[in-house]
Amino acid sequence: xxxxxxxxxxxxxxxxxxxxxxxxxxxxxxxxxxxxxxxxxxxxxxxxxxxxxxxxxxxxxxxxxxxxxxxxxxxxxxxxxxxxxxxxxxxxxxxxxxxxxxxxxxxxxxxxxxxxxxxxxxxxxxxxxxxxxxxxxxxxxxxxxxxxxxxxxxxxxxxxxxxxxxxxxxxxxxxxxxxxxxxxxxxxxxxxxxxxxxxxxxxxxxxxxxxxxxxxxxxxxxxxxxxxxxxxxxxxxxxxxxxxxxxxxxxxxxxxxxxxxxxxxxxxxxxxxxxxxxxxxx
Length: 282
Known about the structure:
Layout (H helix, E strand, L loop, with lengths): L1 E6 L2 H17 L2 E6 L3 E7 L8 E7 L6 E5 L7 E6 H8 L6 E10 L3 E11 L2 E13 L18 E4 L3 H11 L5 E6 L5 E6 L4 E6 L10 H13 L2 E6 H10 L6 E7 L3 E7 L3 E8 L3
Antiparallel strand pairs: 1-5, 1-7, 2-3, 2-6, 3-4, 4-17, 6-9, 7-8, 8-9, 10-15, 11-12, 11-14, 12-13, 15-16, 16-17
InterPro entries: HUS1, HUS1/Mec3
GO biological process, one term: mitotic intra-S DNA damage checkpoint signaling
Subcellular location: Nucleus
């Protein structure tokens, strides 16, 4: 297996840094899926840990100036398990003045992602090298990290801006461990939490509803419009974890609600798509 990539654009370097920082705040470990056309960070929690699933995808051509990969089979994919904090710390060395960043799969005391950061220093260049240990995921386990199917949602709705949503959830998370999200196909959403003393609700109107190309999704939309609002109860800390970790500045936040089962949050920015799946609280 071989992999090496190079970044020359400071904006692309910063984007990778933001993605790394976001992943480190949402999960301790993840699998980095390297493919010919895209780079994906995947995290699958056990059901006993809340069952959260993260899928963060970047098209490699929007990020890298040079990208070469040689996997074990015809798909030319490589799956690497890593500690997200190690990856994020290595990328923190990327500052203004960086000339280039090279990332290679190497074999040292253990398989590593070697990140080489070249910085202009006076009349010469200074090279900073980080070795991030990784574990090669065997091919028999790749199926666990494939792209998730679009869930069979009952309601799909745009969410408020990240800043507003974060402020609301920050206040609610101290009141209860549960959050009830209610939404309909008329652009209405309610966030509710309660304890023995108080019930707090925040209402949003005219948020809008995405139009999906999938016929089944459109049929569900029509059905849910007739049925009315649908709801799901989740652990509020799971949503707070997503909001606190975000640094990718999404242009759109979509919530696909599976009544009484789960919510599927879809964050879209110019170059990054992040899917976050939160099952209903047990």
